[in-house]
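Example (one chain per record):
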Amino acid sequence: MSANAKKTLLALIACVALMLGASASSAAPRLGEIPEGSHGSLKGGGMWIWYVSDSERGNVAKLAAKAKANGIKTLFIKGADGGNTWSQLSAKLIDAFHAKGIKVCTWQYVYGSRPKPEADAAIRAISRGADCFIIDAETEYEGRYREAAVYVRRLRAAVGKDYPIGLSTFPYVDYHPSFPYSVFLGPGGAQYNLPQIYWHTIGDPVDESFEHTFVFNRVYGAPIRPLGQIYNNPRVKDVSRFRRLAASHGMSGVSWWSWQSASAGSWKALTSSQSTPLPGYKPSGQFPVIKRKGKNDSGDLVVWAQMHLVGGGFLSDQKIDGRYDPLEANAVRALQTAKGLPVTGVIDRATWKKLLAYTPYRLTFTSSSSATRSRAGLAVPESASLPALGYEIPARGRG
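Predicted structure:
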C-alpha cells in the first residue's frame, strides 16, 4: 500500500470514528500514516495488557524496557469492551511506545448483543493509531452468526480490507460447534488466528493442547499466531516447549496472556526458554474428518466445508446449514470425482486440501430471526443452536 493510500485510509477511519460519536474527552483520532510493517506486529513476541495502570503502574519507560529485555516486540493493549472505547488506549500512549520501538495492537472483548455499537467502538480504538486489532470473542458469541456478520462487515467497511485484524478465541474448535469461526475467519473477516492455547488451565499436556488446536484450526486458512499462557505459573519447561512447538509449526509469532497476571517466575520462563524448532519433530498432518453420523457431522466445521462446496459450484448457497446430510455427502462425492479422489462422501485430509482450494462463499443473513430462507440472504445455520461440548477455558471476568 502506498504512503498516500495509507494516509487516505487512516483519514477515513478517523472520519468514521468522528461520525460514530467519539467523545470530546477522547484523544483526537490519528490523521497520520498507518505505520509501515503493520502486519509485522503479529510476528515475534507479544504481551497482552488488560489494564495499563496495573502493568508497571503504567510507566511507559519501564514497560518498554521490560518488554525489550524479554523479547516482546508488540503490546496488545485493551482498547474497547463491548460498545465502550477505553480511554487508556490513546494516541499519546501509542506514540510513546512507537518512539521506543514497541508496536501497539489493540483488542476488544465483544458480546454480540449489539454488534454495530461494538464495531463502532473498535473503529474508534483503531483510529488512535493501533498497528493491528484483535477481536476477543468467546462464550457470548456462540450461535450469533448474524451478529458476527454485522460486526465484521461494519468494521471492515471502516478500516479497509488490508488493515490487520486477528481473532482470539477458544482453541478447541470441535468443542464449540455453534461458534461462528467461519464468519470471523471467513471472507472479509480476520486475516490472523490467535487461539488461546492455555494448556496449563485446560489441563492437557502442552503437546496435546497444541496439536488439538492446530489440527482443527488449520482448515480456516488464517495464519496461526498462538496466544500462550504465563498466568497461574506454568512450568518453565512447558513455556519453552510451547515456544518450540510454535517454531516447529512455522508460526512466526507467539503472544502471552498477560502482563499483569504474570509472576516473576513466568517472566523468567520467557527469558530462559527457547524458540527454536524441536529436532526431529514433525507437526501433525491430520485434518478434521467430516462424515455422515460422525463426530463432526454438525457445526461450524461443516458450515466452513459447505461454504467451499458452494464456492466450487458443488452445492447451493441455500444449503449452508451446518448439517452434514446426504445432499452434502453427494456434493463431496462430486468433488472427489472431479478431482480424481476415492469417492467416499467423507471429507478427509485429501478432500479438505482440494476443497480449500476454492474461494469460500461469503455468508450473508436475513435481518429476520425467522428460520426461513430468502433471496435476501441465509437464515442462521441450524447448527447455531448446538450447545458447546465443553469449555476448555473457564470464563474469566473482563471488566
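Caption: Residues 169 and 195 are 5 Å apart (CA to CA).
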